[in-house]
Description:
Elements: H1 13-16, H2 40-45, E1 48-52, E2 55-58, H3 59-75, H4 83-106, H5 113-126, H6 131-140, H7 145-165, H8 174-185, E3 193-203, H9 210-225, H10 230-237, E4 248-253, H11 259-267, E5 273-277, E6 281-292, H12 293-298, E7 302-313, H13 321-336, H14 342-349, E8 360-364, H15 371-378, E9 389-391, E10 394-407, H16 411-441, E11 444-446, H17 449-456
Amino acid sequence: MTKFNLLPALGLSATIAFFAGTAGAATMTDAAGSEQQPTAITAELDRIVAIVNNDVITEHELEQRVHTVAINLRRQQINLPPMELLRAQVLERLISERSILQRARQTGIRVDDQMVNASIEQIARQNNLTVEELRQRLLADGVTFAAFRNEIRDEITSQRLREREVNEKLEINESEIDAFLLEQAGFKGDSATEYHLEHILIPVETAEEEESVHRAADSLAERARNGEDFAQLAAAFSRADDAMTGGDLGWKTLSDMPVALSDILRERPNEKIYVFSDKRAWHVVKVSDKRDGVQAKLGGGPVEQTHARHILMFVSEITPEGDVIRRLNDIRNRVQSGEADFATMARLHSVDSTATRGGDLGWLQPGDTVPEFEQALAGLRPGQISEPVRTPYGYHLIQVVERRTEKEGNPERMRVAARQAIRQKKLAEASYNWERELRDEAYVEIRDPQLKETLGR
């Protein structure tokens, strides 16, 4: 089970490495990190290399992004491609990004400074740096902090637009979930049902025995239908290797059975005793039980689930650890005294993406959360609120709403997990198609002859 993410999904995987690129407002810096004054060289860099609708991409922006991409590639020990190809690739990416940001502006998406600050603090923390150390690291690589902030803002803006226009519009049919669960359980087609089978085999030695053996099989089937113990009949009359175990074949799917048996099971699914011939023998088969094979394979034993909610706060230079703990304790006291509601406090104060849901995390079970969170959760009774709990994500107040015991593989939870897995598979393709549509809809004019030739190949 994948750990759930207690932080907003910002899509900043490249940025977390510090160097996802810089925005158009970036200024060149020297090795000491001081800003350079405009010169003939920087004036040349300001020439326009491409137009995207009513916006432009300058040589300066292109070269700055090429610079940061090259840093990333070298740090990953990847050899740089020829510079003309690298510049063309980067320009194409800038065009796509610019068209996305233009759509975001048109639809009224805005990202405030608080969200940008929180994201930068998160990036610094995940790289074991303070914000100031992050600033110095960026300057050492020729990236101004203002440019970095712009890049973070742009990425968050793009992510919010993507969530609105791609994520929320993804449709997943129930038939897709059914097929996914079948695949995960190792089933194909209509073989999701498992049958517990018991079996009697009577061989046919000669052609003359065919009728008498058939009558014997029919007789045994009738005795079983009348209530005689099938295992005892198998032990007495079956010539199969499993006779001494009562003819128990275990759980089988239709695809595991002889064609003759699977065919009559499909034709007469409500019967219990079947007689059929196959490979010079007559068989009597009893279906002693049926089950959902998918749930049986993917499921497990009983497990305790907890419905919980939380409030998350970050420690930063602006809000040091002591202040965060005091604020959380104050919220805890207000909720416990009845002065405030936990969900309302979560909406007002939590920095997690669950804040809009009142901090609701839904039903959790062991393994769903990080160890520190899970340990604190286990020690709470329904309605109880934890002390501030520290995890790698920050400090939390945790409230248990209720608890229940369910089968680990209960159908509802399995289908929710399947839906999430299918969504992730679809999302990459849908996002790519969406970006291509925006790119294709945009008016793009590439003014640099060499770049235009390279991209036209």
